[in-house]
Write a structure and sequence with these properties.
heterodimer, A: 7-stranded mixed β-sheet, 4-stranded antiparallel β-sheet, 0% helix, globular, B: mainly beta, 5-stranded antiparallel β-sheet
Chain lengths: 111, 112
């Protein structure tokens, strides 16, 4: 049984560009959450998707948007990239319990 | 004030030592609590859930004090492989509806 998968593994972009990150949840998990982890910090909650709707959102600007597909996979889009958006982006999926299981992350570098 | 606060360390201990990590959280309505472990440049992995009654998993013991809004993790007989960052995590919602709030993490380095 595959765990949470994310693509791509690494990505380099320049300021002002747009990026799309992808996540496939663990089998049987219908809820997907996205987190941003800057170097030396704990992950910060971006938003959560359930039944193809954004269920809740953290303190991130509208440049961060997402989508969930009928098969529960999800995308994170970031527009107008800033240098400060450089981070590890983590996707986590969860079943009905509170525990969340993380994918390996996408490391985004903005130059 | 951060919602979840941890001493970032690093904690440098010899093999076989007992080490304790603490964290405090600010939202008294928090519903569930966890410790995650994160190895360098890897994703966080669930180490254990934390309950008010205290719970143990092998060499690891976790404790929650709701009145003091305090969470602890005790590692006995430290192994080299325990070297990692330990993240204190609070879930603000019920079931899978909540968001995870992470502390900064505490770095543990176990030396031979």
């Amino acid at each position: 049984d595959a765990g949470v998968t994310q693509s791509p593994t690494h990505l380099i972009k320049t300021r002002g560009q747009q990026v799309t990150l992808r996540c496939s949840p663990k089998s049987g998990h219908d809820t997907v959450s996205w987190y941003q982890q800057a170097l030396g910090q704990g992950p910060q909650f971006i938003f959560q998707y359930y039944e193809e709707e954004e269920r809740q959102r953290g303190n991130f600007p509208d440049r961060f948007s997402g989508h969930q597909f009928p098969n529960y996979s999800s995308e994170l889009n970031v527009n107008a990239l800033l240098l400060g958006d450089s981070a590890l982006y983590l996707c986590a999926s969860s079943p009905t319990s509170a525990s969340q299981f993380f994918g390996p992350g996408t490391r985004l570098t903005v130059l | 004030r951060k919602e979840v606060e941890q001493d970032p360390g690093p904690f440098n201990v010899p093999e076989g030592a007992t080490v304790a990590f603490n964290c405090t959280y600010s939202n008294s309505a928090s519903q569930s609590f966890f410790w995650y472990r994160q190895d360098c440049r890897k994703e966080p992995k669930l180490l254990m859930s934390v309950y008010s009654s205290g719970n143990e998993d092998g060499r690891f013991t976790a404790q929650l004090n709701r009145a003091s809004q305090y969470i602890s993790l005790l590692i006995r007989d430290s192994k080299l492989s325990d070297s990692a960052t330990y993240l204190c995590v609070v879930n603000t919602g019920s079931g899978n509806t909540g968001k995870l709030i992470f502390g900064q993490g505490t770095t543990l380095q176990v030396k031979p």
